[in-house]
Amino acid sequence: MSTKRVRTNKSTVIGIDVGTTKVAALFTKVNKNNWETLGMATEHFDDSTSDDRIKLKFAIMWAFTNACKDVGCLPQLVNIGISGIEKSFNVSSGVRIEYRVSDFDIQSSLNIDIPEEMALLEQVVNSFNLNGNCEEKIDNPHGMEAEKLNVEMHNIFARKTMKKYVVEAVNKLEGPASYNVTSSEVAAAEILLTKADKQNGACLLDIGGEYSTLVIYHTGALEYSASFPWGGNHLNDKIKFLIGRNVTKAEQAKIAFSQGRNADSPAEWGEVIRTLVEKELMVLCSYLDTELCKSGLEKELKAGIVLTGGSSSLIGLQDTIEREFQLPVRRAQIPDETWLNGLPLEYASALGLAVRGMKLIRGWQTRRKTTGTSYR
């Protein structure tokens, strides 16, 4: 990291998506409602073992540094997302009210028991209701008369050690006034799923290097999230074993197959890889079927399944999922906004983190004006 002092720009946010094989950073600036992309960088790390603290730290630090190096300023906030859901569940909680619902009552209703080995990444409040009247969903109950306040919410957890490693890396970064650690999956959904998708029922399936993760929205709310051990590196290992080549050659073979072309000798690789991919896609569908059944929403996904992640371009993936689940399936697309200028799909989560980070800053600024509380 450079020791040169650079000013912090209060209108800037950097979103950093920490995956299982790479870190993607996107530096953005906003002036009123005009957004601008200032810099971006991706840093891969070997073995994709997120428990490897040193590799993970350096990947985060270098992605941050490379995204900032030609900008001339440093971000006000680093909003960093951890990918790979370790645990998640819906919660229905309630507290007794003396007369009117206060901010303290609302905060008390959100307090949950956190498993000892876990850290809370995301707490998505779906709705409040008063006195157990589930028919009447309320966004903000503050000041309303009630005897009891109930809340329906979804919580996402990561391993406590993983969050610790991420925080240690962020604390070594030069410049940011503050940081926030959250879920990459929810951030990606903010960008890749439309309001109509969330209302009608949609599953965002992110196929990463080591794990695949999914989030399911229905009637506008986050209802389910999970991850399972199937990813692009899993295919690489199988290809490496079958064709007797190293990991790099296996990756090249997989990419060539994904692009509909042959790499090296077609007779040696083509049919072998095709057969292997077909079998592995059925393994993926088996994992996906298990999670959809657990969610209880497999028949409610009118908007279908949206595919993203590094291995979502595999030939046959979309057709296989459509055939097995009888649902509409499409590849995700980043919104067609002028300021994005063809931003690659691999930055979708980082983009979502940056956008949500700016919302955090604006919320802090509003709270600071009304209460005098600093957000550093």
Structure description:
With 376 residues, this protein is α/β, with parallel strands linked by helices. It folds into 3 domains: 8-84 and 160-191 and 335-371, 2-Layer Sandwich (Nucleotidyltransferase, domain 5), CATH 3.30.420; 87-156, Dna Ligase, domain 1 (2-Layer Sandwich); 194-331, ATPase, nucleotide binding domain (Nucleotidyltransferase, domain 5), CATH 3.30.420. It has 10 helices and 13 strands. The strands form 3 sheets. The chain has a 5-stranded mixed beta sheet with strand order 3-2-1-4-8, with helices on both faces. A 5-stranded mixed beta sheet has the order 11-10-9-12-13, with helices on both faces. Strands 5-7-6 form a 3-stranded antiparallel beta sheet. A hairpin with a 3-residue loop joins β1 (8-18) and β2 (22-31). α6 (232-243) runs antiparallel to α8 (266-295). The protein is globular and about 70 Å long. It starts with 7 loop residues before the first strand and ends in a 5-residue tail after the last helix.
Q: Largest beta sheet: what is the strand line-up? A: 3-2-1-4-8
Largest sheet: 5 strands, mixed
What best-fitting shape do the alpha-carbon axes yield? globular
What is CATH's topology name of the largest domain?
A: Nucleotidyltransferase, domain 5
Span from first to last CA?
22 Å
Q: In total, how many domains does the architecture comprise?
A: 3
Radius of gyration: 22 Å
| Residue share in β-strands | 25-35%
Order of helices and strands: EEEHEEHEEHEHHEEEHHHEHEH
Classification by helices and strands: alpha/beta
Total number of beta strands: 13
Q: Helix proportion of residues, in percent?
A: 25-40%
Q: What is the CATH homology-level superfamily of the largest domain? A: ATPase, nucleotide binding domain
At CATH level 2, the architecture of the largest domain is 2-Layer Sandwich
Task: Note the total helix count.
Answer: 10
Output the CATH class name of the largest domain.
Alpha Beta
